[in-house]
Amino acid sequence: MATWMIVLFVSMSGSLSLSEREPEYFSPRSCKELMLRYKTNEDGLYYLTTASGVVYQTYCDMTTAGGGWTLVASVHENNMYGKCTTGDRWSSQQGNSPNVPEGDGSWSNTVTFGTAEAATSDDFKNPGYYDITAKDVAVWHVPNNEQVNRWKLTSFLRYHTDTQFLNSYKGNLYNLFKQFPVKYNIGSCPDNHGPSIPVVYDVGDATSNHNLFGPNPRARSKPGFITFRPINTERAAMAICLGVKPTDCDTEHSCIGGGGYFPEGSPRQCGDFPAFDWNGYGTNTGWSASKQVTEAAVLIFYR
């Protein structure tokens, strides 16, 4: 595993250290840019720089489906029994309240948190989430608390889009969620769902992905997609459905990153994995998800 920061300096003679055609200072904006410019082909931690000059460290996947994938976020459920409590950074840390319909607003703001190396043990969001202009996304499901050099080995699902759908949303999820806010009462189901994009599996398949969720959500969704900003029956908004396209309005059982308020069953819903435990923690019965997916971080990449 590599950890790199690329900076070019001018020598005393005025010539550049790598090539006369290189700029005086170069630090890549994305893992794809790093891969294309320097033929970097090793997975690992690297330093990138935003357009405004902010330097940050993240993980680059340089080998999957052509490489060049930049880790920009991870969603980690630190406590399934805590519903919109401390640590639920992608939903709300302020409780399940109609007074905060957008929760923490992390899907559409520039607040950052966590570290790349700890992305499977805590929520993570870096400046690349809003700074990088990308075409596609990838998702990895990695067991909680796994060390970074074992992410690829232990991931039980990895899938990506290949339709360049982000071209329609100014190149990243930050802008997509500006158009489709993750906010209570912003719309109704099914009329106001966001886009559903087909995915290609790098590890696992659509069937094994679907089976991670309970029989009830399986009966109400199609596998092989990633869906953004679905809304449930009670007008609560989720952010991302994990490998599925909902066919009805019970989206809280297979989608993550809910908004700030869930009217039904309070406090049984709300949180980064809002109702994965509806019929018991990890039971994979009724509406409940399996323990495997409940106890895994969701890593989100751009390319």
Automatic annotation (TrEMBL):
Start-end of Polar residues biased regions: 88-99
This protein's GO CC annotations: extracellular space
Signal peptide: 1-17
Highest taxon above the source species: Eukaryota
Region called Disordered, residue ranges: 86-108
InterPro entries listed in its UniProt record: Fibrinogen-like_C, Fibrinogen_a/b/g_C_1, Fibrinogen_a/b/g_C_dom
Residue stretches making up the Fibrinogen C-terminal domain: 22-72
SUPFAM superfamilies in the record: Fibrinogen C-terminal domain-like
Entry keywords, A to Z: Calcium, Disulfide bond, Lectin, Metal-binding, Signal
MF-aspect GO terms: metal ion binding; oligosaccharide binding
PANTHER family on file: INTELECTIN, INTELECTIN-1A-RELATED
Protein name: Fibrinogen C-terminal domain-containing protein
Organism: Tachysurus vachellii (Darkbarbel catfish)
